Amino acid sequence: METGDVGPGLCCASFNQDSTSLAVGTKTGYRLFSVTSVDKLDCIHESKTPDVYIVERLFSSSLVVVVSQSVPRRMNVYHFKKGTEICNYSYSNNILAVRLNRQRLVVCLEESIYIHNIKDMKLLKTLLNTPSNPSGLCALSINHSNSFLAYPGSDTIGEIIVYDANNLSTVTMIPAHDSPLAAVTFSASGTKLASASERGTVIRVFSIPEGLRLFEFRRGMKRYVNISSLSFSPDAQFLCASSNTETVHIFKLEQHSPSGEEEAPSWSAYVGKMFTAASSYLPAQVSGMMSQDRAFATVRLQMAGQKNACALAIIQKLPRLLVASSDGQLFIYNIDPQDGGECTLVQKHRLFGSDKDWEETEKSQLTEPAQACQSYAATVAIPTSGPVTATLTGYSEDGGAKKGEVIPEHEFAAGPVCLDDETEFPPINWCRDGSGRGKGRRP
């Protein structure tokens, strides 16, 4: 869902936990967009904070986490609607990634991981001496009832450590790939984990917490690629992968019928049975390649060689693929959930730049063909999976560590800021506590 150093236009781009919002950072500031309509992209917040390379929003709340190149060891947590700082924390090295859900805030450094309780920003656990992770690769389940955290277990092979950030204990180690990891992501429920290695040819999906391999998809065999973005659909029926090539692949997670007798006989079914039978007589490497599923749907982008952030979402009751490109555009594609194939570009939006500069581009934007929607709208069910949390009646936020200090594991500032808002999660509202911390600074 997130990628840093996207390209010359964007410093970073990330979708929020349920892909209803997009955050982008540039050299001159960052923006937050609401992604709930195909034809309209609303900029809900804009900040002039320069050189932002990490910006993460917590669902559709007013809480946003920002890290700037000017102070790469400091994380700032803002209430962007009120224009105030909630807290800030400094760490022993540069911050490489931040992940959020409704229970935990995780900060990833190259060789350590910090786990905070998001309700009061208390530091719960520090994972020290983790394998070298220069890209800050990690994933946090958005389902706060389990809060699984995944990070590399080795810098030489593709091992994944799955950690329970709620109970603060290691769950399992998954030997996912022969090469070092390049991408990991959880499904919305936290019961599936997808991964890709630096080779980028094979994408695997595992059950969580068991760590059993469920699916194996082949992106391609001709060349190695750098997969920068993996994302499940809300119902975990699809998985998309974006790389430094011009193609985005979408895979369908469907279990094949264990008994071919129940299916209507067909030539393809017969051939499939013959391949299955023959695979038992072939070397493991060859039979494994035969059993891997190819992409169910694809998108061919207008550019290659850049990192892009991609996400699968339901917008206006239809499944869409969202791609935030390195040149500062958001592309929205239709996905046919029955037949797959080449996805249809239905809209594109600019993410930065002046209205005058982009006026001609916006006039020529593609509009969504009505027939395309009608052809498969009836086959799409609105996913109901994913965490549903009742609005909390109270919320406290730590006042923040002193500037320039590294926070000790068991020391946090006194005088929490009370937050309460019935219309948001987390419910956010300022209460006077006499400390005055976090006030006066604008994001």
Automatic annotation (TrEMBL):
Membrane topology type: Peripheral membrane protein
Pfam families according to UniProt: PROPPIN
Subcellular locations according to the entry: Preautophagosomal structure membrane
Organism: Carassius auratus (Goldfish)
Keywords: Autophagy, Lipid-binding, Membrane, Repeat, WD repeat
SMART domains associated with the record: WD40
CC terms in the record's Gene Ontology section: phagophore assembly site membrane
Broad class of where this protein is predominantly found: membrane
Record keyword Repeat present: yes
Molecular function (Gene Ontology), one example: phosphatidylinositol-3-phosphate binding
UniProt name for this protein: WD repeat domain phosphoinositide-interacting protein 1-like isoform X2
UniProt record similarity statement: Belongs to the WD repeat PROPPIN family.
Biological process (GO), any one: protein localization to phagophore assembly site
